[in-house]
Design a protein that fits this description.
By secondary structure, this protein is α/β, with parallel strands linked by helices. The protein contains 13 helices and 17 strands.
């Protein structure tokens, strides 16, 4: 990136995409600062398990020089998928694919472990914790002043919005806001599942068990450290809990409403709702319009959910964010100016993210349709 002065590059958001971008830039000698609203790397739970796809997440890890470090942290056995009907009868048990013969191998890793790996790969002090971005002020010629909630500011030649669904950087380039998809996922966890919940542990298997029918679903996913994350999915109004009179802070009240919604489901699946060792976390699913594009804007670009928020059902979100981060970093290293680099990056970003988002929207519609169970089996068998 030759110039009389190295550009100041600031990434907002220490998620997988932003961290991959920073890692590759640093690996090739470029300076970068990452800002994150969390007070520390361990301030909050990072969520469940991710499968790393060959052309996106795996590609990014290899470009970052982290594939060998990733492998021992991953769980290849986590690719097992089991499908049950609403009564808890097992319909399909797909073993993890084996390496070789063109197999689509997608090893699982806990989000927390992946973030830890990426953070440890950066130079000390790269991430500024407790930096909640309030606004980005354009100063002209592509320079922006970033204003943080703690009163501090910094000026940058390129601000990269890697700050997720409700990005504070996105308004610099786009008026788009995420819309509710009509589907909500309520999360809970089983802790030390092999010992505390042996039957549910066996039913889940080493990877994921899913039962989807008539706009509802119970999805159990194996995580590390003996945990199983349970996703109770509903096609429902965004304010379903208020309509039902349930306080989300009252696990018993939420459980009662969910059990009523699943009252005609089988005992093996209802057991996941009853056995939760934690409270319930309400996660309405949102998505940005498709396609989501913007005019070239000097000194700013987006990656990951800030650029193309889509349904997590596709499993593409973190993988695409990491590929975005890798592609943007290489564009910045390969072009003389940040504007030229961003233009090259966005030329690739827009069609790729539109295709993925369209697929995610179609997949969500199919999964939570009246024939959702049939779509699951058809997809698993390669018929759609």
């Amino acid at each position: 990136m030759p110039s009389s002065r190295a550009p100041r590059i600031d990434v907002v958001g220490a998620g997988p995409g932003g961290l991959i971008c920073a890692r590759i830039l640093q690996r090739h000698g470029a300076a970068v600062t990452v800002h994150d609203l969390d007070t520390s790397a361990t301030a909050r739970d990072q969520g469940g398990s991710l499968d790393m796809h060959p052309g996106t997440g795996q590609h990014a890890l290899k470009e970052a020089g982290l594939w060998d470090a990733f492998a021992p942290l991953s769980r290849p056995e986590g690719q097992q998928i089991r499908v049950a009907d609403r009564h808890g009868r097992l319909l399909l048990d797909a073993a993890p694919p084996e390496e070789g013969d063109g197999a689509d191998v997608r090893p699982e890793i806990d989000r927390g472990r992946l973030r830890h790996l990426l953070l440890n790969s950066l130079s000390p002090g790269t991430v500024r914790w407790g930096h909640r971005l309030e606004r980005a002020e354009p100063l002209g010629d592509g320079v922006h002043r970033l204003h943080f909630a703690d009163g501090s500011t910094t000026e940058t030649d390129l601000v990269i919005g890697a700050d997720g669904a409700w990005s504070r950087v996105r308004p610099l380039v786009s008026d788009a806001r995420p819309d509710y998809t009509g589907v909500t996922v309520v999360e809970a966890e089983l802790l030390d599942a092999d010992h505390r919940h042996p039957e549910l542990s066996t039913f889940t298997g080493n990877g994921m068990m899913m039962a989807i029918d008539a706009g509802q679903g119970v999805i159990a996913q194996r995580n590390g450290e003996g945990r199983i994350r349970v996703h109770i999915a509903l096609r429902t109004a965004e304010d379903w809990h208020r309509t039902a009179g349930a306080d989300l802070a009252d696990p018993a009240a939420v459980r009662a409403v969910l059990l009523a919604r699943f009252s005609d489901w089988g005992a093996p699946l209802l057991a996941f709702l009853r056995a939760a060792d934690t409270g319930y976390v309400n996660r309405p699913l949102y998505a940005l319009p498709v396609p989501h594009t913007w005019r070239p804007t000097a000194g700013v670009t987006l990656l990951g959910d800030a650029a193309h928020l889509m349904s997590p059902i596709s499993g593409m979100g973190a993988n695409l964010a990491m590929r975005d981060g890798a592609d943007l970093a290489h564009a910045l290293l390969d072009h003389v100016t940040t504007d030229a680099a961003v233009a090259a990056y966005e030329k690739v970003l827009f069609p790729r993210s539109a295709e993925a988002a369209q697929g995610a929207a179609a997949g969500l519609a199919d999964l939570f349709s009246p024939d959702g169970a049939a779509h699951v089996l058809a997809h698993m068998s390669g018929e759609e």
